[in-house]
Structure formats: structure tokens, C-alpha cells
Recover the amino acids of this structure.
């Protein structure tokens, strides 16, 4: 049975190994380590099965240029290759979004698969005149889930992730 809970300090090595495995030794594992070290207000959850970390999701603050509103960015989300396609990623996303909504987070952005994230209430960010800070990102891959319609600026703006993401892109 899968248990979803907040990431704890003793999970860090397992989370690093998980991200390395899930992303074929890409920059995600190092990115998570850097974000943890530099960001006090990140939120991370793990999926645990039989005492082993098999999934991880990270949320970090994002801003909309020229506005004081702060939401969260979902990235990265990873599941051990041996445990993929079993609904663990979906459980992590739902758990994280529910937690953020209950804590008053006005919106969550994601740069991800357009076939996957809409099932969690993500919509095209461009519908709300939100642009991704990185050029060349396909419109259908940049999405937002809104919990508070009044929090987003009507004119939109550029959504900015933390600087650590720039090196991973």
C-alpha cells in the first residue's frame, strides 16, 4: 500500500536516487537538492511503499512579474521506473494540490505533459494571459491550476520560477 506524506530529512538520499533514476540521470536530482538548500518555503511529498520512497513531488514559489501574488510551481514530480503507470504520480499530484488549496495557495503552475495534467484541473496558462519565462515552451505544455480567481492579475504576466530552474532548463 502506498502512503503519501511530507518529505523528511532522512528521505533526501532516496529522493535524489529516485529523481536520478526517473529522469535518466538528468539535472532534476541536483535541482531538487539545490532548491532544498536555498528555498525555505518549498513543499515536498513522498510516496512510500514498504518503507521505500517510490515517488516524490516538489512545489516551490513562483511569481507573476510586476505583481505581489505568489503561487507555487510543480516541478519535478518523479516515480521510480519500476513503479510507474500504477497511479502513484496521480496520487502525489492530487495530494499536493489538495494541501496547497487548503493552505490558501492561489495557483499552481506546471510545465508538463498536456495529456497528463488537465485531469488535475490544470488549464492552458495562456487562457489567463500567463506566459512562461522561458522562450520556446509550447503553449499546451504550460498550464495553471487556479484556486483563487481573484489572485491572478487580469492582465496576466510572465510566471517566474526560482532562479535554480534556469540552469536545469
Amino acid at each position: 500500500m502506498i502512503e503519501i506524506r511530507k518529505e523528511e530529512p532522512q528521505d533526501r538520499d532516496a529522493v535524489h536516487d529516485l529523481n536520478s533514476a526517473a529522469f535518466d540521470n538528468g539535472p532534476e536530482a541536483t535541482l531538487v537538492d539545490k532548491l532544498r538548500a536555498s528555498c525555505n518555503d518549498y513543499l515536498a511529498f513522498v510516496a512510500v511503499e514498504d518503507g521505500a520512497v517510490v515517488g516524490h513531488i516538489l512545489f516551490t514559489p513562483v511569481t507573476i512579474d510586476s505583481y505581489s501574488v505568489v503561487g507555487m510551481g510543480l516541478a519535478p514530480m518523479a516515480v521510480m521506473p519500476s513503479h510507474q503507470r500504477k497511479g502513484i504520480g496521480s496520487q502525489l499530484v492530487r495530494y499536493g494540490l489538495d494541501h496547497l488549496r487548503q493552505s490558501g495557495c492561489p495557483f499552481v503552475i506546471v510545465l508538463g505533459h498536456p495529456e497528463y495534467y488537465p485531469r488535475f484541473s490544470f488549464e492552458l496558462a495562456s487562457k489567463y494571459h500567463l506566459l512562461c519565462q522561458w522562450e520556446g515552451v509550447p503553449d499546451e505544455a504550460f498550464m495553471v491550476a487556479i484556486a483563487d480567481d481573484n489572485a491572478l492579475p487580469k492582465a496576466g504576466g510572465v510566471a517566474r520560477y526560482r532562479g535554480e530552474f534556469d540552469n536545469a532548463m
Q: What stands out?
A: The chain has one domain: 2-168. The first strand starts at residue 2 and ends at 6. The radius of gyration is 15 Å. The mean pLDDT is 95.
